[in-house]
Amino acid sequence: MKRSFHELIINSDVEDQGKPILLICNHNSWWDGIWALHLNQQKFHRKFHFMMLEEQLKKNWFFQYTGGFSIRKSDRTAVESLNYAAELLENKNNLVLMFPQGKLQSMHRRTFTFEKGIERILKRTNNEVELVFEVNLVDYFSQAKPSVYLNATVYSGEYSLNAIQEAYNAFYRECIQQQEKKEV
User: Fold this and answer.
1) Domain residue limits at 166
2) Does residue 1 belong to any structural domain of this protein?
3) What is the CATH number of the domain that holds 145?
4) Would you state the torsion angle of the CA atoms of residues 96, 126, 101, 160, taken in this order, to the nearest 10 degrees?
5) Are 94 and 81 in contact (CB under 8 A)?
6) Is residue 37 part of a domain?
7) What is the largest CA-CA distance in the chain?
8) Going by DSSP bridges, is the β-strand pair 94-98/21-25 parallel, antiparallel, or unpaired?
9) Cα–Cα distance for residue pair 86/158, rounded to 1 Å
10) Tally of domains in the chain
């Protein structure tokens, strides 16, 4: 990453609570999973798992050796993938990354609409899970290579799709506002 980025900056007050982590992240580039892995290595030190679309995992088959597992949307097997994610979250040493919008979207998008998988996973998990939001932002400022800002916070509200989606969007807007204040 040092060849591609000026720096990676973690903005987070998240304290390790010793629980399994469901990490929810915006998805605007190929790098998002790698940035989430970096956040995990720096802050959480969990075994890293991530859900990705089956067709993408077939194209990038090597991800299955780095914690990737597939989901086939609009198929009955999607329930199996969601159940697998919930099983992973039974172990406090695991972190599961999800991109809840279910697809790559522009980094200029200001509001995200989540798929139903997050709520289903949380309902199927039998223990306490730390739900962490991550917002990745990229800026060049005066550098030839971009800086990446990894913003993370813990969610502590209701485990419903609408509540989680609204809270994530509010956190995203807050991160954008903080980013707009930066000067170099």
Assistant:
1) 7-179
2) no
3) 3.40.1130.10
4) -150
5) no
6) yes
7) 50
8) parallel
9) 18
10) 1
Q: Is 62 exposed, middle or buried (0-12, 13-18, 19+ CB in 10 A)?
A: exposed
What percentage of the chain carries pLDDT values higher than 70? Answer: 91
Identity at 124, one-letter amino acid code: R
Q: What angle do CA 46, 51, 52 make, to 5 degrees?
A: 140
Whether the Cβ atoms of residue 50 and residue 57 lie closer than 8 Å to each other: no
Q: Is residue 34 part of a domain?
A: yes
Q: Identify the three-state secondary structure at position 57.
A: helix
Residue 18 lies in a domain: yes
**In angstroms, how far is the first alpha carbon of the chain from the final one?**
21
pTM of the model: 0.91
Q: Give the Cα separation of 135 and 90 in Å (integer).
A: 25
**Is the pLDDT confidence value at 89 over 80?**
yes
What tens digit of pLDDT does each residue of 106-160 get? Answer: 677 778 889 888 899 999 998 899 999 999 999 999 999 999 999 999 999 999 9
* pLDDT grade for 57, boundaries at 50, 70 and 90: low
